[in-house]
Design goal:
Layout lengths: L11 E7 L2 E7 L1 H19 L14 H7 L6 H11 L2 H5 L11 H20 L3 H14 L3
Antiparallel strand pairs: 1-2
Helix pairs in contact: 5-6
Length: 143
């Protein structure tokens, strides 16, 4: 893939929301870094001096959000409140929490971890724990 800005070999992509649809834009490393710095600078200037709040549920810091554009959990929306309300539509395309989906590799690793946990719980005769893990595996479609 070619960089959408300079035409060099693309090594990254970003997803933008245009007219309500997700569109991937491929960028080279330099253009991606410049874009990230531009977004970071723009959001820092619009906020001025901001106290570095922390989400009590997941521990995500406001400064992390201002740097990456990602919140850690649905409670972050309440924890950071009006400080981020104006930025969310620009950065994320909306104000509703949408969890990131796991890749196939991450799902496979999680399934293997859960299977090992299931075996350990059964070996230790923790049948309630084993049933909970088994249900989680079924929900994932791993068994």
């Amino acid at each position: 893939m070619k960089c959408a800005v300079c035409g060099a070999q693309a090594t990254a992509f970003i997803t933008q929301i245009k007219n309500g649809k997700a569109v991937q834009v491929y960028l080279c490393e330099n253009c991606a870094r410049r874009r990230e710095e531009m977004l970071y600078d723009r959001s820092r200037k619009s906020q001025g001096q901001v106290k570095d709040a922390v989400c009590p549920e997941c521990g995500t810091r406001l400064s992390e959000f201002l740097h990456t554009g990602f919140l850690g959990c649905p409670d972050c929306y309440s924890a950071f409140g009006s400080t981020i309300a104006g930025m969310l539509p620009k950065i994320q395309g909306g104000t509703r929490h949408v969890p990131r989906s796991k890749t196939a590799g991450e799902k496979a690793r999680l399934a293997e971890t859960l299977k090992a946990e299931l075996a350990r719980a059964e070996r230790e005769m923790r049948y309630d724990d084993a049933e909970a893990v088994r249900q989680r595996l079924k929900d994932m479609g791993a068994i």
